[in-house]
């Protein structure tokens, strides 16, 4: 059997020569017939070892400057169901392994001075680890040289020994080569040479999940004085350690060696586990002389030859039916047999506190362990020097998720416990106190909850206990469904797609899993659910409620009738309390301005605890989960909730031990209360009371209707007739609830305009002074005056220019910043320059505005608030919430009109305000063409072609225009430092005009190409042109630049705004 296919794969995979040589040595052992086994007959028990208490060397802190502390951080913890760095698992009081390791180092430095710290990450843990440290401990990252990455090796077919294959997930074809790779990785990364060059002589190595292995001056000083090349820390084995490796003496040469469990044949198992015979186990805390390591590596030709460990696995660790493979590994402790003069020392048990399985995790999380002032977990003195023996059912508590489900009510007290044994699925809580030896059994298929009391020296059979009843979570098998990648506005598909088997359930479960993995405790606080009332919302809400409680949520708020506008969701998350009830996140069931109904669109998005859309790292995790999901959890027997009436419903488990709450909350109260605190309602009331002022507000049968009626009818006393189409309908009454000139036909006609925004003959019919429209989920707006259309870009600029007339901004010292999406016109830029405001041009997507709003609070950066932001797609808002807010924009305009209108004076109209603005700043003529429902592949090709030709087009003359720059917009976020590429193709003319193209991802099917045309006019005699007059020639140029007729078969837009 040849190594060459393996060599080729490793070389193609970028593996270092030292890693290839080391793996070839291990492979040679495999093909030579080596089993990796160490028979009991070939070894003897290790002799008595020096104990820590017998160290005589004087502590020498001066050695620290020659020492590096290295943590092995390559494990994912897949055996415990984890799919990220195991060190990021929370272990105690909210701290992860990595938190405690970092705090230990920082504490050590505060006491002893500088000491080098490093991590050996794996290709699977490097990104997660460094991202975490960059955010939480930037000073460690700033030092440089913090990590080196261990090598990867191919998994081998169990029969042929050739590299395994997994075309569906090529990442599964590789595995870490065990922590024995430490030596090859030190060489391959250059770290060994760098450390030696820096005068580092001693290395302390330990696993990242062993928090007891802190730097110890006594051990360091002893090691240095002994002049040994290698020293292993050992502990005396207890029953809890009998299945782990042990130290032994090889009979053939009296050399100390390490025998791991994988090196023990079944017939030797009893001897292997004899803790009286084989007394010492390897803690994996090692001390290494780096100069001696260098000599030994050079002696063997660039690697350390270590005994082979053969593990039988499947190529896909989550699929037992996938290809059978072997993973060849080595153990770093086995190097004890390679170094002549290597020694071992027996250390206190406090230096060994790892977590290898959920038994260990439960013990560490319990009160049996405490955290010392130097951030070490040590056995609670009340335990009397002996840790409780914990034995949990291997099937029911193999995964961390299983343990956390069983302890969702908190961790039981183990400080007085000597032995805890659990068979079957038994749930516990912080109210449970275990003393002495306790055993619990549950032979039923359903989990059973222990009552909150003390259990002492007892055996309890829970099999016949009542059980959870309506709160019983059921795990339902499923499989990944393609195409569940959420965009900036969530996941949108046809309604019937969402109604398909497991489609909604898969996405919701994937979201819960991602949210939990990101650190949110679903059992604390509240989950908020609501939507825009479109078809399938009621059924979807009931499903999400049932899944929420199955996933550990204890409290749910739902909007009355299932209705909550998107801005109202953000307001409730941010404003509603008390703190212990505060929402940690929300599911919003909306496809925004897309049509609704059984044959139209449905959508779902998740908003986080700041009230804004899920950030990209979370949506990426959600999508990754949808591609690997195998089951979802749901409480099938949970009763349907009546959403028609506000009030609370308490549901209690059959055994009385669990309680959850669903509260149907007012659709409007929280949001309207916030709006009242922002605007000058008395001034607006005075405006609305004028005889010469009338208004209409078209909610287009979307969710905005109840909010419009609450504000304008209940608060301001307007007649219901002013609220057009204010009754929410699940299909928006057959309309398209998109507030623009094309789809808001009834309002546009009422305001005396055609679909291009031009005045029409009203035949003497009166026209309201003010008109507005909202979209399906209430976050967009359109503003109209009497026979006058205000473009979204102009609306943003006017609100920004007059922001200090609004109490929210005036009370905070005035507006500080403005932001617009890249396709939005530059009208607000002129305001920002005039008022000395910070200005940001972002990609399309509200999350970019949210970052700016949260710069100080979440990112410890610059405070850009108060901030106003907007998009040309009829979205406007401020930092009062983390979503765009349609009714906010309407009230902002009314507040501005109220401020400029004086009692007894002629009415200053919407057009008067806009014309005055243009006279001061000039006019940005602007139009957007939407080509909806075009072939996505063709549209993508069109965009790619324009991108490819950007250099060729730069400097080109087209019509009366010369292209100064043709590029693809890229955004470097000043807050989270992320880079967003390919955000649209731009043609920037020398005269300042712009032609922009974007491919929109918010449609439920097909694709939408958007073309944006903008031309600035500062000549006051040319401010009254129609858009067609001002932009006609530039539109022709734009259509020619993109070639949409050739690519997509049309150059006639479906919507013009």
Architecture overview:
Helices cover 28% and strands 25% of the residues. α2 runs antiparallel to α6 (182-188) and α22 (792-801) runs parallel beside α24. The protein is elongated, with a radius of gyration of 34 Å. It is built from 32 helices and 53 strands.
Q: What is the β-strand count?
A: 53
What's the arrangement of strands in the largest beta sheet? Answer: 2-18-12-15-11-3-6-7
Cα-based radius of gyration, to the nearest Å = 34 Å
Please estimate the helix content.
Answer: 25-40%
Short description:
The chain is 28% helix and 25% strand. It is α/β, with parallel strands linked by helices and 1057 residues long. Helix 14 packs across helix 17, helix 16 (566-575) packs across helix 18 (669-678) and helix 19 (681-688) crosses helix 27 (886-900).
Keywords:
1057 residues, alpha/beta, eight-stranded mixed sheet, seven-stranded mixed sheet, 32 helices, 53 strands, 25% strand
Topology, element by element:
Layout: H1 4-12, H2 17-31, E1 43-45, E2 50-51, E3 67-73, E4 90-92, E5 95-96, H3 97-112, E6 116-121, H4 126-136, H5 138-142, E7 147-149, E8 153-154, E9 156-157, E10 174-175, H6 182-188, H7 191-197, E11 202-207, H8 217-226, E12 230-236, E13 246-250, E14 255-259, H9 269-272, E15 280-289, H10 290-299, E16 309-314, E17 324-329, E18 343-346, H11 358-365, E19 369-371, E20 377-379, E21 389-392, H12 400-406, E22 413-423, E23 426-427, E24 433-441, E25 448-449, E26 454-461, E27 474-477, E28 491-494, H13 495-498, H14 503-517, E29 526-531, H15 537-550, E30 555-563, H16 566-575, E31 583-589, E32 601-607, H17 616-626, E33 631-634, E34 647-652, E35 659-665, H18 669-678, H19 681-688, E36 695-698, H20 704-715, E37 723-724, H21 745-750, E38 770-774, E39 781-785, E40 788-790, H22 792-801, H23 807-810, E41 817-821, H24 827-835, E42 838-842, H25 846-853, H26 855-859, E43 867-871, E44 875-878, H27 886-900, H28 910-921, E45 923-934, H29 936-948, H30 950-953, E46 957-958, E47 961-968, E48 971-972, E49 979-980, E50 985-989, ...
Helix pairs in contact: 2-6, 14-15, 14-17, 16-18, 19-27, 22-24
């Amino acid at each position: 059997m040849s190594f060459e296919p393996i060599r080729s794969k490793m070389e193609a995979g970028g593996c270092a020569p030292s890693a290839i040589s080391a793996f070839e040595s291990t492979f040679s052992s495999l093909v030579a017939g080596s089993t990796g086994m160490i028979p009991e007959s070939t070894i003897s028990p290790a002799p008595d070892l020096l104990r820590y208490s017998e160290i005589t060397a004087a502590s020498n802190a001066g050695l620290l400057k020659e020492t590096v502390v290295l943590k092995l951080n390559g494990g994912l913890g897949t055996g415990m169901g984890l799919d990220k760095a195991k060190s990021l698992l929370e272990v105690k009081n909210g701290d992860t392994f990595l938190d405690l390791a970092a705090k230990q180092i920082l504490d050590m430095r505060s006491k002893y001075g500088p000491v080098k710290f490093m991590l050996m990450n794996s290709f699977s843990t490097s990104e997660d680890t460094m991202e975490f440290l960059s955010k939480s401990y930037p000073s460690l990252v700033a030092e440089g040289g913090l990590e080196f990455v261990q090598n990867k090796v191919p998994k081998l077919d169990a029969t042929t020994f050739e590299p395994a294959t997994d075309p569906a997930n090529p990442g599964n074809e590789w595995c870490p080569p065990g922590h024995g790779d430490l030596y090859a990785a030190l060489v391959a990364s250059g770290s060994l040479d760098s450390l030696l060059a820096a005068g580092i002589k001693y290395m302390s190595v330990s696993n990242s999940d062993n928090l007891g292995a802190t730097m110890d001056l006594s051990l360091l000083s002893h090691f240095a004085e002994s002049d040994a090349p290698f020293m292993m820390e050992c502990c005396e084995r207890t029953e809890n350690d009998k299945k782990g490796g042990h130290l032994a003496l090889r009979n053939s040469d009296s050399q100390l060696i390490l025998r791991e469990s994988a090196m023990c044949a079944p017939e030797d198992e009893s001897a292997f586990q004899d803790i009286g015979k084989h007394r010492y186990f390897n803690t994996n805390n090692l001390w290494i002389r780096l100069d001696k390591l260098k000599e030994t590596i050079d002696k063997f030709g660039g690697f350390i030859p270590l005994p082979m460990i053969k593990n039988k696995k499947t190529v896909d660790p989550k699929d037992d039916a996938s290809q059978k493979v072997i993973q060849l590994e080595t153990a770093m402790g086995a190097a004890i047999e390679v170094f002549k003069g290597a020694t071992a020392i027996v250390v206190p048990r406090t230096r060994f506190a790892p977590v290898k399985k959920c038994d260990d995790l439960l013990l560490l999380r319990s009160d049996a362990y405490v955290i010392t002032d130097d951030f070490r977990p040590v056995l609670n003195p009340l335990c009397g020097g002996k840790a409780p023996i914990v034995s949990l059912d291997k099937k029911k508590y193999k995964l961390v998720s299983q343990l956390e489900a069983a302890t969702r009510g908190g961790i039981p007290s183990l400080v007085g416990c000597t032995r805890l044994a659990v068979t079957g699925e038994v749930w516990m809580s912080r109210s449970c106190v275990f003393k002495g030896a306790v055993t619990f059994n549950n032979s039923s298929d359903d989990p059973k909850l222990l009552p909150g009391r003390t259990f002492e020296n007892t055996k309890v059979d829970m099999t016949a206990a009542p059980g959870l009843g309506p709160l019983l979570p059921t795990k339902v098998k499923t499989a990944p469904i393609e195409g569940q990648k959420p965009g900036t506005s969530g996941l949108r598909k046809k309604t019937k797609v969402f109604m398909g088997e497991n489609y909604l359930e898969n996405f919701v479960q994937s979201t819960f899993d991602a949210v939990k993995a990101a650190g949110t405790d679903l059992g604390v606080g509240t989950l908020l659910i609501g939507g825009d009332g479109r078809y399938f919302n009621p059924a979807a809400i009931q499903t999400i409620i049932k899944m929420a409680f199955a996933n550990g949520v204890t409290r749910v708020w739902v909007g009355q009738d299932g209705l909550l506008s998107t801005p109202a969701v953000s307001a409730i998350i941010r404003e509603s309390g008390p703190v212990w009830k505060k929402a940690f996140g929300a599911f919003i069931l909306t496809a925004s301005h897309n049509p609704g109904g059984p044959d139209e669109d449905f959508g779902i998005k998740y908003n986080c605890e700041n009230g804004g859309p899920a950030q990209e790292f979370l949506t990426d995790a959600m999508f990754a989960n949808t591609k690997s999901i195998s089951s979802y959890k749901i409480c099938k027997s949970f009763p349907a909730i009546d959403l028609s009436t506000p009030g609370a419903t308490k549901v209690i488990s059959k055994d009385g031990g669990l309680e959850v709450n669903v509260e149907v909350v007012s659709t409007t109260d929280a949001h309207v209360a916030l709006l009242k605190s922002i605007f000058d309602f008395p001034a607006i009331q005075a405006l609305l009371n004028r005889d010469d002022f009338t208004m209409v507000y078209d909610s287009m049968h979307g969710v905005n209707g109840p909010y419009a009626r609450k504000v304008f009818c209940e608060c301001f006393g307007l007649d219901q007739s002013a609220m057009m189409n204010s009754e929410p309908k699940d299909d928006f009454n057959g309309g398209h609830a998109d507030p623009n000139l094309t789809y808001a036909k009834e309002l546009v006609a009422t305001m005396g305009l055609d679909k291009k925004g031009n005045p029409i003959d009203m035949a003497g019919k009166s026209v309201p002074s003010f008109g507005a429209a909202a979209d399906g989920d209430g976050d967009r707006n359109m503003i109209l005056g009497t026979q006058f259309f205000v473009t979204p870009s102009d609306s943003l600029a006017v609100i920004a220019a007059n922001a200090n007339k609004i109490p929210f901004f005036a009370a905070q010292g005035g507006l500080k910043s403005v932001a617009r999406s890249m396709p939005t016109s530059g009208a607000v830029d002129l305001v920002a320059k005039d008022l000395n405001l910070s200005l940001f041009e972002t990609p399309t997507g509200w999350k970019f505005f949210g970052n700016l709003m949260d710069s100080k609070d979440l990112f410890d950066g610059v405070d850009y608030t108060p901030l106003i932001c907007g998009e040309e797609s009829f979205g406007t808002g401020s930092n009062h919430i983390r979503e765009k807010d349609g009714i906010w924009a309407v009230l902002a305009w009314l507040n501005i009109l109220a401020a400029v209108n004086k009692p007894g004076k002629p009415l200053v109209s919407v057009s008067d305000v806009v014309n005055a603005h243009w006279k001061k700043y000039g006019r940005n003529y602007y139009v957007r063409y939407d080509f909806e429902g075009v072939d996505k592949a063709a549209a993508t090709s069109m965009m790619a072609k324009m991108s490819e030709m950007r250099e060729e087009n730069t400097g080109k003359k087209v019509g009366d225009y010369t292209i100064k720059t043709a590029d693809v917009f890229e955004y470097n976020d000043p807050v989270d430092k992320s880079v967003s590429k390919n955000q649209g193709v731009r043609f920037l003319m020398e005269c300042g005009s712009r032609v922009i193209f974007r491919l929109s991802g918010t449609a439920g099917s097909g694709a939408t190409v958007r073309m944006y045309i903008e031309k600035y006019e500062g000549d006051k005699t040319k401010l009254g042109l129609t858009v067609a007059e001002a932009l006609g020639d530039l539109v022709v140029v734009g259509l020619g630049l993109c070639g949409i007729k050739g690519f997509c078969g049309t150059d006639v837009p479906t919507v013009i705004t």
